[in-house]
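Hi all, posting the design record for the shared folder.

TITLE: backbone redesign
STEP: 1 of 1
STRUCTURE INPUT:
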């Protein structure tokens, strides 16, 4: 199958964006994995499919696949790239666009300075909805909220490792587990990340965030993403970390999030049900055409 694509990035979280407004391309999970592969395909953390509005109150639908081929509910950096894509290609001239993603309807605005602000929806704290099953764990009270002590263990050819991490657990439509670290550069993201992602307490797996608080308005963050590994930035991860920090009494309502790929601004009023606003960059890198193997 011969397709056209656009390569985009938001704070270094990179995407292959597909125009599916004339109808879905019908890619298989293996074809998504191939497209996202940095050696055999184009290379991306996620693949975004832009589709026509499935209902009257939205302008588009956009469908997100991780680079492991699995479809997911939400992608913050992708949302900013999505709005830049539909406006840049003349698919809409609206500055504020409503779009259906798997988590629900979100609203995005391209700002006059070129950044994009996304209403990411409200965080979800109901543990079964995350989903998170804390059977046998006793929560630790922290600033009026809770951290969950999750035991990690792994066996490798070098021996067994084990330990407990204290996680703030919530959903931004997709599941997140955030831990506080002293120094994000030294945090064991690549060793603990996969253990947290695949821990049995998270039946749908989870995105694992490592947050260093610099002051009440500034954090540094790394995220080991479910289905994609560590990325240079994770938009929903930034929202989840800031919401967790606010609920734990550690952050103010507007926070700068520094990632290895760039900065995001996250705002949350601190009330259950109130939406999280995320502002950050979105850039087109190049356009291309490629033949996707039919046999996959
Ligand atoms: N990079 C994204 C998140 C993509 C989905 C995530 N890996 C998941 O599986 O939930 C972002 O910017 O939010």
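Okay, here is what came back for every position:
SEQUENCE:
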């Amino acid at each position: 199958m011969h397709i056209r694509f656009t390569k985009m990035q938001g704070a270094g979280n990179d995407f292959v964006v597909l125009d599916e407004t004339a109808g879905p391309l019908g890619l298989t999970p293996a074809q998504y994995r191939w497209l996202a592969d940095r050696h055999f395909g184009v290379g991306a953390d996620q693949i975004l499919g832009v589709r026509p509005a499935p209902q009257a109150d939205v302008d588009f639908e956009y469908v997100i696949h991780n680079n492991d081929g699995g479809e997911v509910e939400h992608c913050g950096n992708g949302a900013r790239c999505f709005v830049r894509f539909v406006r840049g290609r003349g698919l809409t001239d609206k500055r504020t666009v409503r779009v259906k993603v798997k988590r629900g309807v979100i609203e995005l605005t391209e700002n006059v300075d070129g950044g994009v602000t996304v209403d990411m929806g409200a965080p979800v704290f109901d543990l079964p909805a995350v989903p998170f099953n804390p059977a046998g764990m006793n929560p630790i009270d922290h600033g009026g909220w809770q951290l969950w002590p999750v035991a990690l263990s792994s066996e490798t050819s070098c021996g067994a490792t084990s330990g407990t991490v204290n996680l703030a657990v919530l959903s931004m439509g997709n599941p997140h587990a955030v831990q506080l670290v002293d120094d994000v550069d030294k945090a064991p993201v690549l060793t603990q990340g996969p253990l947290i992602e695949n821990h049995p307490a998270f039946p749908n797996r989870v995105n694992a965030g490592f947050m260093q608080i610099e002051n009440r308005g500034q954090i540094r963050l790394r995220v080991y993403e479910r289905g994609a590994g560590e990325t240079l930035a994770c938009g929903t991860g930034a929202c989840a970390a800031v919401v967790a920090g606010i609920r734990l009494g550690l952050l103010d309502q507007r926070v700068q999030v520094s990632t290895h790929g760039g900065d995001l601004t996250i705002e949350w009023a601190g009330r259950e049900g109130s939406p999280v606003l995320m502002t950050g960059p979105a850039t087109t890198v190049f356009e291309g055409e490629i033949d996707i193997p039919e046999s996959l």
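COMMENT: Residues 13, 45-46, 66, 72, 75-78, 174, 207, 225-228, 231, 234-236 surround LBFN2T5F (CB under 6 Å).
Let me know if anyone wants the other runs.
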